[in-house]
Amino acid sequence: MKIFKSIICGLVMCLSVSCQKYLDIVPDNVATVEYAFRMRVTAEKYLFTCYSFLPKMGDMYQNPGMFGGDELWLSADKSWWSNWVVALGNQNVNNPVLDYWNGANAATALWMGISQCNIFLENIQQVPDMDDREKAQWAAEVKFLKAYYHFFLLRMYGPIPIIDENLPISASGEEVRISRKPVDEVFDYIVNLIDELAPDLPNAVRDENSELGRITKPIAIGMKAKILVYAASPLFNGNTDYEGFINPDGTPLFNTVYSAQKWEKAVAACKEAIDLCHSLGYDLYEFEGSQQTRNISEDTRLHLNARGTITERWNPEIIWANTGSTTRDLQVWAAPRVLEASHIGNQEPNGSIGVTMKVVNLFYSKNGVPIDEDTEYRYAERFALRTSTAEDKYRIKEGYTTSRLNFDREPRFYGTLGFDGGIWYGQGRFDDEDPYYLQIKKEQIGGKVQVGWHAVTGYYAKKWINYTNTSVNTGTYTTVNWPWVMLRLGDLYLLYAEALNELNGPNDESIHFLDLIRAKAGLDGVVESWTAHSRNPNKYTTAEGLQEIIRRERGIELALEGERFWDLRRWKAAPEELNQPISGWDVDQVTAEAYYRERVLYNQTFALKDYFWPIRENDLIVNKNLVQNPGW
Fold first, then answer.
1. What predicted TM-score, i.e. pTM, was given to this entire model?
2. 352-403, pLDDT tens digit by residue?
3. CB atoms within 10 A of CB 251
4. pLDDT tens digits, 63-91
5. Most C-beta atoms within 10 A of its C-beta, which of 17, 264, 317, 512?
6. In terms of Cα–Cα distance, which of 60, 566, 140, 43 is closest to 353?
7. Distance between CA 162 and CA 140 in Å, rounded?
8. Helices and strands (H, E) in the chain, number of each type
9. Which residues make Cβ contacts (< 8 Å) with residue 277, sequence separation at least 6?
10. DSSP strands (E only) in 93-145
C-alpha cells in the first residue's frame, strides 16, 4: 500500500477538470505547501484539488455500479471496459480493474485524495487573508470529502485503514505498514467526522453560478444517513460469512453479532436528513414542461418525470450532483443511433448500451404491482405479440407490433426504457401526437448493422437521455450535459422506508414515503395497489413482504443510477440475483416473430469473494500487515 507523507506530492497532479470554477486545481509547476497556502486564491486552488479526486460516476468507464452488475450489457467488442470486466467475472488480484486503492485501471487514487485532504486541513488555518468563518467552511468541505473517500473505499474493499492524519516524513518503516481496521470502527470514524464538520457547512451555496456541487449541510447530513443504512445492512451487520477474517495480530475485521441499534441510528439519521431537506425546499421532481411541451398528455408528462429526475440540472430533488462528472459521452453512447431516416450516418449517437431483461421485468404493471403478481396481467403470455391501438399511442406507436411484455406497464417503464416500437418523445420533435418511435429490428433504420453500435438486449437507457438532445444533422448531436447525481431526495425516502421496516416491521411511515415515490410515478399507494390487484394482497402486512416491496421500489425508482450494484451487495442478495443469466431479445432477427424470442447473452456468476474488491498482490508483498479479502 502507498503511504502518503506530509509533503506536497499530489500538487503536481494534472487532472482533467470541468469548466466549473471550483474545479480549477493547483498549477503543476508548484512544489511547496507554503506557496499553496500563502493567500486565499492559492488555498482555494488546493481546495479544488481535494474535490478533483471525487470518482466520476457519470463516466461510463469509472462507475462500478454502471456496468459491473446486471442492469446494463454491452457488445463483445467492449470487453475491455473496466467495469464490465467485473460483470463478466474477470476481476483479478495481479492488476485489479477499477483499482481505487492505487488509482489504476480507470480509477481515481483515493488514498492520494485523502492525503491531499489531510495536507489541506493541516495548513488552512495559516492563510492570512481569510476570516475564521470561511476557513471553517472550507475545512468542513474537505473533511466531508475525506469521509466520503473513506466510505467509497469501505464500500468497495470492506475493512480499510483509517488515514486521519498523514504520517510524518520521519515515520519508521513499521509505522508506515499500517493495517486494516474493523468495519464498525471505520463506519464510526466516517460518521463522527461528518458530525464534526456539519455545523460549519452552509445550507446552500452562495453563488449558484460558480459553486454548485460544493458540499453543503444537506449533502453531509444526507450522506450520513445513507452511510448509516449501509452500516446497518446485512453485509456489515451480523455477517457470519466473515467470522474468520482477521488481521495478522488476530483482530477480527467483522463484528458477526447483529445489532438492531444500527437500524435505530439509521432511522434517526434518515429522518434528520429528510426534515432538513424539506425545511430547505427540496421536493420530489415533477416535470413542469416548457413552451414546446405545453400540450403534452398526462402519459408523456409522467414518462418525463422519470427522465427528468436526473437529467434536468439542479432540479429540486437533487441534493448532490458532481459537476466534475458530466454525462455527454454517456448520453452519446446510450442514445439510439437513428430515430428517423434523416439521422442515418450521424456518427455521434451510437446506441451501444443495452438494458437487460432483468430490469425490464422489474418494473410494475400499470396497476402498480409486479407483473407476475398482477391478477389482470397475462404473465404467461408476456412474450406473445400484440399490436398497438390508439389507446397505447403515447407509449407504443399505434399499429406497431411488439411484445406483450411492453404493454400495460407503469409510467416509469416508458420513461426509463426505449424499445422496438416504443415512443421516444423529444429529441427535437415535441408534438405529442407525432413523436419519434424506435424501429430497431435488423434491417429497420435503427437495427443492428455491426458488432457494436446497437443495444444488444433490444432495450435502451432512455432515462439518461435529456429529452431536448437533438441530432441536428448527420455530423452534430447536441446534448444537455447534466452532472451525475450523487444523492437525491427520492433515495432518502426509500432508505428511510427501508430502515423503519427493518427496525419495526410494517408501519404507516414506511408506506407513506413509498406512496410519495409512487404518486410521482402516477401509481396508487401500496395498500390500494396490492389490495386491489395482487395475488398476494396482504404482502405489505409482514416485515418480509414489505421488505420485498421496498427493495423492488428502490430497484425501479433508482434504475440505471448505479445503486442496484451496491444494494444487492449490502442486502446480501447478490448470490441470488447475480447467478442468473443475462438476457434480451434476439436483435439479429428481421421479423417480429423471430426478434421477440428471449436470448441468453451471458451466464453471470457471483461468489463470496465478489462482495469486495481484491487488494493488489504487490501491496500485500510491500506491507505484511495487510490481509487479502477472503476468496482472492
1. 0.94
2. 999 999 999 999 999 999 999 999 999 999 999 999 999 999 999 999 999 9
3. 13
4. 999 999 999 999 999 999 999 999 999 99
5. 317
6. 60
7. 18
8. 23, 14
9. 218, 222, 319, 489, 492
10. none
